[in-house]
Hints:
The chain is of the alpha/beta class and 341 residues long.
Amino acid sequence: MRDIVTTAVRGKALTTATWHRFWEALREGQVDRAEAAALFAALSARGLDAVTADGLITSLAERRAKAALRLPSAVNIVGTGGGPATVNVSTAAALVAASMGVRILKTGSRAGSGTVGSIDVLERLGIPLARSADEAGEQLDRFGITFAGQFVYPAELTRLARTVSPLGLRAVGGIVNALGPFLANVSTGAQLTGISDASALHVFQHLAAKRTETRIWLCHNDLGADELLSIAPSQVHDNGAGSFVVDPTAIGVGGGTLADLARPSDDAAADFLALIAGQAPEAAVATVCLNAAALAVLAGTVSGFADGVRAARAVIDDGTVLDLARRLAAEKLVTTGGRHG
């Protein structure tokens, strides 16, 4: 494996064939902690290139039999991580959109740049992750939203995490975190993905163009946040229909600063509940509403962003979102073995 590490350190791209060779060696126990850590640290330090990113994702896709979870009527929201630490916008927006009648699949991970990621906050709220396709379908049918667990991610990543332990992927796996939106073994009708590093946009456009079964919006902004913002315009790239700008002032949600989006305390659960109850700074609530509106536009349940923002604010103000979060935390998943679309 030393040659693969050398290739990465020298800044050369890793092809699909090279990734296959790495995963096979990892499976056979022929990769030690130092080699694995050095490889991913080198890749993370130098940034993404299209050949390496495509090779990693393609190799993992080719090593599995079929999609673990197909929900063509659902929309996913998941960012690349990185950028300024903010409140859990994507998780809150997913709950708001579900409260608006949008069918939501939420994938995600633990924190990258922030202290609390999607999975972290769900754990603290007591909201269960689906452990199988049947559980995901059950959760989606009962609540209009499902949070996909580890079963949608490649087994190779679990093996990699064990190999680099106790370092953990967070320490060496910047490239894994960044490519997370394209690593989950799921198929949905649409996906909203925020990109914190705009210099890697061409890589994500390449990856999105290959997902012809899913309409994907890639969004980025000058503040480097991996979500649409109410405090700054965002550029959105549609993998099927060009690009456009979301100007929050034109929608009526402009104003505020990045400081308004920071998590206010060490109590992540309480902060999150305040956010979805509309009791956070206006810019934070407006940002959640803007992302929920984007999900509704992608799903075709609203005619435009302005209508979507108004609908999002309505379900926050009347307590529907907070009630959904509490119902998710209070009830257990019941697997029926049925089929779900």
